[in-house]
Amino acid sequence: MLLSALREEVLQANLELVRKGLVLYTFGNASAVDRRQGLVVIKPSGVDYDVLRAEDMVVTDLDGKIVEGKLKPSSDLDTHTLLYREFGDIGAVVHTHSEFATSFAQAGMAIPAFGTTHADYFHGPVPVTLPLSDEAIKGRYVHETGLAIVARFKGAQAKLDPMAVPACLVAGHAPFAWGKDAAAAAHHAVVLEAVARMAYRTLALNQRAEEVSQALLDRHYLRKHGAAATYGQG
Amino acid sequence: MLLSALREEVLQANLELVRKGLVLYTFGNASAVDRRQGLVVIKPSGVDYDVLRAEDMVVTDLDGKIVEGKLKPSSDLDTHTLLYREFGDIGAVVHTHSEFATSFAQAGMAIPAFGTTHADYFHGPVPVTLPLSDEAIKGRYVHETGLAIVARFKGAQAKLDPMAVPACLVAGHAPFAWGKDAAAAAHHAVVLEAVARMAYRTLALNQRAEEVSQALLDRHYLRKHGAAATYGQG
Amino acid sequence: MLLSALREEVLQANLELVRKGLVLYTFGNASAVDRRQGLVVIKPSGVDYDVLRAEDMVVTDLDGKIVEGKLKPSSDLDTHTLLYREFGDIGAVVHTHSEFATSFAQAGMAIPAFGTTHADYFHGPVPVTLPLSDEAIKGRYVHETGLAIVARFKGAQAKLDPMAVPACLVAGHAPFAWGKDAAAAAHHAVVLEAVARMAYRTLALNQRAEEVSQALLDRHYLRKHGAAATYGQG
Amino acid sequence: MLLSALREEVLQANLELVRKGLVLYTFGNASAVDRRQGLVVIKPSGVDYDVLRAEDMVVTDLDGKIVEGKLKPSSDLDTHTLLYREFGDIGAVVHTHSEFATSFAQAGMAIPAFGTTHADYFHGPVPVTLPLSDEAIKGRYVHETGLAIVARFKGAQAKLDPMAVPACLVAGHAPFAWGKDAAAAAHHAVVLEAVARMAYRTLALNQRAEEVSQALLDRHYLRKHGAAATYGQG
């Protein structure tokens, strides 16, 4: 069986989403990529989490062609593979319909950087895509969803580093998060939901709440990332 | 004993509502219909879920006349039977007072289709009935509750397919959901509550949030329904 | 030991508040009265729920004089005893700081009757007291808290039947609920919190949401109460 | 091993934060001080709570110099030690990113004293610091966080007794709480979150909700504190 260690990591990332209350029924999926072999391991579509096993994971190439697996891959596969092709440093992708992050996505609003919890993980607001056009929806919809994300990071308006802001909201849909590996991507999806909850409450308390300063964004982001990181037992 | 398999399915649907946190004490009920025999299996009224057994279910005919069972049927029986008579394709009905769907019902507001979670299950907004008149309340109140639902689907204003929008909010009361069988009806009631939570939060973030496009509604609904469905392992 | 069955009922009512998530630490208390003997059984003050035993309950007379028990009674005792003296039909009193009912009390707002969940238990809005005067607070404060409740039911402004509306919010404080016995009082406190949650959400969705009609209040209240009750297996 | 009893108390305070749902992953820390020896016991940085042992705690002096321990101390150490140096009566400090208290901090708002739950623990509103300047953030940031707290209690604007108001919100960050010992500090952090939840909901219901009177603040604070305390079995 191909990539057995990576299958187990992807399984564990999927289960972490369940443990942290981010998924209802089968609304969520995680994948990871083996860059050397050019292979993606992804959760199968619509299988209950409590019977999901590492060997149920589906292996595809970077264009989404199935290489191994008896089950159908997650219906969001084409978004995952596009992100792997476009964001060369990411090792895993997670998609959920977690309550608060999804509500920001439905409202068409980015998640403002209101505090240090946010700044520890996201070096600026978590962006939201533009709504997909009817043509995109009627065409290669899942692929177009990926394109909308990529446009927010590599588009004309703004350049964002996907490793510095490891998540994006898809308007009218829900969040995608990523990271260097499956555990990091799931961790980011969980923190994203916590950050979204608190941003929601902050706005409810004070519609004119101000985002934290660039100095604070930099301080907290660099506290956890890079050579000078001071957090944890590193 | 009549319909023993259907009793077990109805019991399991009732218990799923408890597991998913949709019911407090005994505030909820599920039923299913055997179309061939013209018989309805429904939860008894006011019995604690933790002592509820398949053999406690009450069997009635499609007019609500008890055919088998020592206990009194759910006090909402006449709404269930009316829905079975009017909506010929449904196989089960579920009623809860789940927090967010009930709050929309109390506010007299339909649940807008703000995202793909909604669109995967409901092919448009989940409608709300008009308030019942004093005459209806003082008359055959439970039957009239069913009539108010039917009027939203078959009324002069709008034609809605109950299989495409498998739920309705009763104004000043709470939601009813249905489906092809008891498991589907319970599943729809659970998803309805999740969708209501996110619609509530979407409106709190952005009072002018826009509903998803018809193209997206169609895409997601057809993704899970019909011959060209791509979701799951089916 | 006096009143051993009633002690056990009061213990169970206190534990029901914990099971249903209404109390944090020791913020809550339940009592019951034996009308024949003129004795009140009440939770001791500040004892952890997980070590609380029936024999720890304190027995007092209707003026709050301790008759049996080694522990100090709940600091809210004088409110409980006043309610027993003034509301001759009630058999038990429960006090909690449950989140949503307390928030209405802090906002100085009654809980409107927005739906049938409410109408099944409370035959109209759940009232809120006036704020206590500085004199009342500096004087017999706990007794004055009871007087403020009684004033809402027997005052010049309005006559309310405490058995038809078995709860009251104390402004700037929290709810009290009552019933024919300890189980009913705890049940009313739990339903009050659920009703408060949904009223909160209803107002968030629609600030002009309308209360249900008198016809609906009457229908639902009488569905569960009185000789013609149709709910449950009674 | 130095201070083994205090290590155990600090461990238990950290675990209480987890049990009460105040921390996600490793977002929180507790410490305590031994005033006689001038030593501080603090949680190590970024260690999972489920493997955390009393012997993992780090011991430092009051300037944050490590005296014993193989692990790195919490990255918030310099805030803790400053509070110990400035607030001479406190015996322990707790820091969390609990959802509602953090949302007030992010909104830059103090938590108003809306009710008796608040008044039982905090003798007035829970204050919020000013935002840190860019210089403070780029300089000794963690130390400056402590200075911002101290400025709210000992500053020119207002004198507050840290034992009467045992918590402060750091703007754009999250709450710190303290108490006479580790159990009290954790207890205050838990109650702070409950009080923040209810203040949030109170404001949502009534933006002009009034704080309780000074008479009520005094009554409730003195009910639980000082020689004339009447609450509990003490």
Q: Quick gist of this model?
A:
The structure is a homotetramer of 234-residue chains. Chain A has helices at 4-19, 77-86, 99-107, 116-119, 134-138, 141-154, 182-205, 214-224, and strands spanning 28-34, 39-42, 58-61, 66-68, 92-96, 167-169, 175-179.
Low-confidence stretches of chain A: none
Number of strands of chain A: 7
* SSE ordering of chain A: HEEEEHEHHHHEEHH
Shape of chain A: globular
Largest interface by residue count? A-B, 34 and 28 residues
Strand sequence of the main sheet of chain A, in spatial order?
4-3-2-1-5-7-6
Radius of gyration over C-alpha positions of chain A, nearest whole angstrom? 17 Å
CATH class categorisation of chain A: Alpha Beta
**Proper CATH architecture of chain A:** 3-Layer(aba) Sandwich
Per DSSP, the total helix count of chain A is 8
Major sheet details of chain A: 7 strands, antiparallel
CATH topology grouping of chain A: L-fuculose-1-phosphate Aldolase
The CATH homology group name of chain A: Class II aldolase/adducin N-terminal domain
Beta-strand fraction estimate of chain A: 5-15%
- Count of the domains of chain A: 1
Oligomer: homotetramer
Mean pLDDT of chain A: 95
Spatial separation of the terminal alpha carbons of chain A: 34 Å
What proportion of the residues of chain A is helical, as a percent range?
Answer: 25-40%
Structural class of the secondary structure composition of chain A? alpha+beta
